[in-house]
Design a protein that fits this description.
Layout (H helix, E strand, L loop, with lengths): L13 E12 L3 E4 L4 H15 L5 E3 L9 E6 L11 E5 L3 E6 L2 H14 L6 E3 L2 E13 L5 E7 L7 H13 L4 E5 L1 E2 L2 E2 L8 H4 L11 H6 L19 H13 L3 E5 L7 H6 L30 H15 L4 E3 L8 H5 L1 H10 L7 H14 L4 E5 L12 E4 L4 H9 L4 E3 L2 H4 L10 H6 L15 E8 L7 H8 L2 H10 L7 H11 L13 H4 L4
Parallel strand pairs: 2-3, 2-4, 4-6, 9-10, 9-18, 10-13, 14-15, 15-16, 16-17, 17-18
Antiparallel strand pairs: 1-8, 5-6, 5-8, 7-8, 11-12
Helix pairs in contact: 1-2, 3-6
Length: 522
């Protein structure tokens, strides 16, 4: 075997090939200490479910000179200062995975998983044996934020699909799951204090499925819907279960409660929180809606703070996404309550309403030891100083100013990282070639670009099969951008490694498109 025959995605920072191979079989033992016993159990489960091997776990002792071992070790040295980095050494006698954290060990296991050549299986006397090439891998991620966003407001998939996505993210070394749980088309999280949010807000009567009509039609146009109800939400117990499942895979979940726009599901449930008083239906169409939360309503901040209290009680994440994109001001201009609020607070004009709203929510969450992240639409000079920004489209100069002030940004460039577009519009090479660090950004500001996040908006993604088709292999390309050093990234190399990687997805039941489909160009 040559180094070119080793196909790992995302490609490690450093890898070298040595002579020989390690033979993995039923006689192999996993050695570990109590601090990383849970990680060892994860390795045992992978070897059992993927390879059919039942390998015992024993306590690691320094004096152990046995052979045919997999050793997981927490160590502390300069090369392991990166809390997500690891060293993987495969020799003929043993496999050693070393890291300063359980997270690093976990990522080392994902790499080991790809080193097992599936076509080299031996079956002699019904004993399975796999040989793994001898290598030394020293690896660490390029970016600290490697994310994927799933929109479950527009279509609800349920916890089985979400766990499936989390498994794939872990395999690809993603560490952040951004969960878009509320929008005009549905509210998907149980809030005990406001039960109508799910009793009413989680249900819509159908969907306008024709893409152009759904996006361009006015609110007054009566366009037929498909008549297929879309319902569903997560109970708080289900959310706790999924959050725990993600944590076991070293993935942080960032919930998004989109406010003050994209709130028709809220207004359908509690219409008095609008500027007009309603009534409203959970939206069946996909476009910017002019009805938004009434910031001049004396109840609005108490309402939102009560919701956020339950959100932060559920989600351990220090970061809460509050949206902030695509908020029209028409209703506020015509609303006596909003105009009175502007005068009372000395805001001068309606354009200052949303910044005031955002800062008030940000300060409230800061009082609870949380911080906000917002879409770049709301960036302005007065934005609360600890607010993070997620960039998707337009006003990129404001994003650069935000970065140059020492503030943090996550990059989700629509033309490369929005996975809900056909491959003709965003082909695989366009996703792979994107780099989150702007070429003209001074190096001293690079650290303020935390990383990147691919987004799957589900207006026209209604099933797992469609979700798979849009997401893979583009999410695989994003994983390499987030992890691999820039100088090592090469699209031709990626495509070659992808040929060997895609069959591994069969173990997850991923229905990815054909090579002809995902390689098509504009």
């Amino acid at each position: 075997m040559t180094l070119k025959e080793i196909n790992i995605i995302p490609e490690p920072a450093n890898i070298s090939l040595k002579e020989g191979a390690f033979f993995l079989n039923e006689q192999t033992q996993i050695l570990t200490d109590v601090k990383v016993k849970e990680t060892a159990e994860q390795l045992k489960q992978i070897l059992s479910s993927v390879l059919g091997l039942n390998i015992p776990i024993e306590e690691y002792k320094q004096t152990n000179e046995s052979k045919n071992l997999i050793i997981l070790k927490r160590i502390y040295s300069e090369k392991h200062l990166n809390h997500e980095g690891y060293t993987l050494i495969v020799s003929q006698d043993r496999i050693e995975i070393m890291a300063s954290t359980s997270k690093g060990l976990f990522y080392g296991i994902q790499t080991l998983r790809q080193l097992i050549p599936q076509d080299k299986v031996k079956n002699e006397n019904l004993n399975l044996e796999f040989f793994i090439p001898c290598v030394v891998v020293e690896d660490y991620p390029r970016f600290q934020w490697r994310g994927f966003m799933l929109d479950e407001s527009r279509h609800f998939f349920g916890k089985k699909v979400v766990k499936y996505i989390l498994d794939l993210m872990a395999f690809l070394k993603f560490n952040t799951f951004h969960w878009h749980l509320t929008d005009d088309q549905g509210w998907r999280v149980e809030i005990n204090k406001y039960p109508l949010l799910t009793e009413i807000g989680s249900k819509r009567e159908g969907t306008i499925t024709a893409r152009q009509k759904a996006l361009l039609c006015s609110e007054k146009q009566k366009i037929p819907i498909d008549g297929i109800p879309v319902t569903g939400y997560y109970t708080q117990n289900e959310l706790k279960e999924i959050i725990s499942y993600a944590a076991e895979r070293h993935i942080s979940i960032i919930p998004e409660i989109d406010i003050p726009g994209h709130t028709t599901a809220i207004l359908a449930s509690y219409p008095h929180l609008s500027c007009t008083g309603g009534s409203f239906d959970v939206s069946t169409r996909f476009r910017v809606h002019k009805d938004v939360l009434c910031i001049g309503n004396s109840e609005i901040f108490e309402f939102l703070e009560n919701i956020l209290d339950e959100i932060i009680h559920l989600f351990p994440s220090q970061i809460i996404h509050i949206g902030g994109d695509e908020v029209p001001t028409k209703r506020w201009k015509d609303c006596p309550k909003c105009q009175a609020f502007i005068q009372t607070k000395g805001l001068n004009n309606v354009m200052n309403l949303q910044p005031h709203f955002t800062n008030r929510i940000g300060k409230y969450l800061a009082s609870k030891d949380r911080r906000i992240i917002v879409w770049n639409d709301i960036l302005n000079d007065d934005l609360i100083s600890n607010a993070m920004c997620q960039y998707w489209l337009n006003n990129f100069n404001l994003v650069l100013v935000h970065v140059q002030k020492g503030r943090e940004v996550v990059m989700s460039e629509m033309n490369a990282l929005y996975l809900n577009y056909p491959y003709k519009l965003i082909p695989l090479h366009q996703t792979y070639s994107y780099d989150p660090i702007p070429s003209d950004l001074e190096e001293k500001f690079h650290k303020n670009i935390l990383g990147l996040e691919a987004c799957l908006w589900t207006e026209f993604v209604s099933t797992k099969e469609i979700l798979d088709w849009y997401t893979f292999p583009r999410l695989i390309a994003v994983s390499e951008t987030g992890w691999t050093p820039k100088k090592k990234r090469n699209f031709d190399s990626f495509l070659k490694r992808l040929d060997n990687f895609l069959p591994l997805l069969k173990a997850f039941d991923v229905r990815y498109p054909s090579k002809e489909e995902f390689l098509q160009k504009q």
